[in-house]
Every structure is written in C-alpha cells, then in structure tokens.
Amino acid sequence: MRAILTRVKSASVSIDGETVGQIGKGFLILLGVGPEDTEDTCRILAEKALSLRIFEDENEKMNLGLEQVGGEVLVVSQFTLYGNCRKGRRPSFAGAAGPELGEALYERFLSICQELGYPPQHGRFGADMQVESINDGPVTLILDTDELTAPRRA
C-alpha cells in the first residue's frame, strides 16, 4: 500500500462539480492499493500516517500531530501511485490492485481512520475526481508499507 501524505491548510475533492469531501488543517492522503495488500497493511499504513508529528510547535519544529492541532483527514483513492514508467511513454498500472480488492481495502482504510479517531472525508473509489489543496510548508511524505514492514538493516 502506498500513500502520498501532504500537510495542508485546506483540501477538497469534487466529483462532477460537487464537493464530496472537504477539510481544513490536516492531512490530504492519496492512497494506492497493491495486489498483495491486506487489512493488516491498511492498519499499518493508517496507524503510521495518523501518528506522524509533522505540524510545527511554538519553536517551529515539526513536533505536533493531528490530535494536538485539531487536524482533519481527507483520503482520495489513487491507483496511479502504482504506475510504472520504466518503459515507453505510457505508464503501466499492472502493479495496482484490481478494482474489487482496491475498493475493499480503500474502504477498510477509511474505517480504520474512523476507528483511530479521525473520521475521514473522502472521495469516491473509481470516480473522476478533482482535488484541490493548499499545501502547508510544503510538507509532503511518501509512505509505502513495503518499506514500513521490511526488516531493518543492522
């Protein structure tokens, strides 16, 4: 599972001109699901993302988390995070999960965010969406469960 997490001042997602999800200060999470992902990888990624301390404290150090700043979460499905651009000019998306698994794990990720105390605003799986954000910092991080769960080197 992969995510691009951006610290935002605000973000929204629209479908056919209608805003379906909107937040103020918080995290915009673009979420991609791979074919080997499971409910366990959903939980690992959600726990990691939602626990990051990337908001500045009074000393301008990234030391505060969502809870301390009253932050919100907007999650948007993004299968293109599994795009492979190694060959040719058109990316291959063969590395992304199929729609059935992708949607199931996207929905599971949303429910885990809810369980962890951050009811997410969100887009709609498979829809043509327009995403707007005002990035804060900018602070943008790449999270990949392959790296989060890999054995550490000595």
Descriptive overview:
Strands 1, 2, 3, 6, 7 and 8 form a six-stranded mixed beta sheet that branches. It contains four helices and eight strands; from the N terminus they run βββαββαβαββα. The chain has 154 residues and is α/β, with parallel strands linked by helices.
Describe how the helices and strands are arranged.
Layout: E1 2-15, E2 18-23, E3 26-32, H1 39-51, E4 55-56, E5 62-64, H2 66-69, E6 72-77, H3 99-115, E7 121-122, E8 130-144, H4 145-148
Parallel strand pairs: 3-6, 6-7
Antiparallel strand pairs: 1-2, 1-3, 1-8, 4-5
Helix pairs in contact: 1-3
Unreliable stretches (pLDDT < 50, length at least 5) are: none
Radius of gyration using CA atoms only: 16 Å
The main β sheet shows up as:
6 strands, mixed
Kindly state the number of beta strands.
Answer: 8
Terminus-to-terminus distance: 25 Å
Judging from the principal axes of the Cα atoms, what is the shape? globular
Coarse structural class: alpha/beta
How much of the sequence is in beta strands?
35-45%
Helix content: 10-25%
